[in-house]
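Bench notes, afternoon.
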Amino acid sequence: MLPGHLGEFSVLKIAVIGATRGIGSALVEAALADGHEVTALARVPGRMTISHARLNVVAGDALDPDAIAKVVEGQDVVCVCLGTTRITRAITLFSRSAEILSRALEPEQLLIAVTGLGAGDSKGHCGFFHDHIFLPVVLGRIYADKNRQESIIRRSLTRWIIVRPGLLNNGPRTGHYRALTDLKGVHGGRISRADVADFMLAQAKAPRFIGQTPMLIY
């Protein structure tokens, strides 16, 4: 039975790619606390600070087709929370991983992928400094590849949600935020990583934004 048609207390099988820090770590913690089974892909499993009977940690790289196939097999929902700190080199992590996932996922599986505010048609809705200075000068290579990632997901997968959070912080989960698909008049905003994870888990349980690119801000 597909996610979104399950009973309120049904247990989901959720895979998290990019699980050892940030949004991915927060999502693993939230999903386990909510009673679900989680499979986490970790390039360095020792960096996984969460331990739980319902957590399966798979050692592997997001660019390894065999590791991806192992992680997504049998999962209801696959969540991509990849990030990189390499801003001075050519970046292909996001698009290459999307290509691998597009070949590994079954049509009924739901992909929820985090890109960011400024990707795709959200460009120009981040605020003046971010749009005109920080995004093109500092994050240009990252967002060029995030755009490729989004294009691959759109054209290759049947069930997907692309999540574009605003400027991230380490604040608490509040459960109170906006998920916007109409960006008219919107110019940036902030959100905690914990609340991005909260939104992703909510969509895993009852997806309302399939085939959409909601922007998350307070």
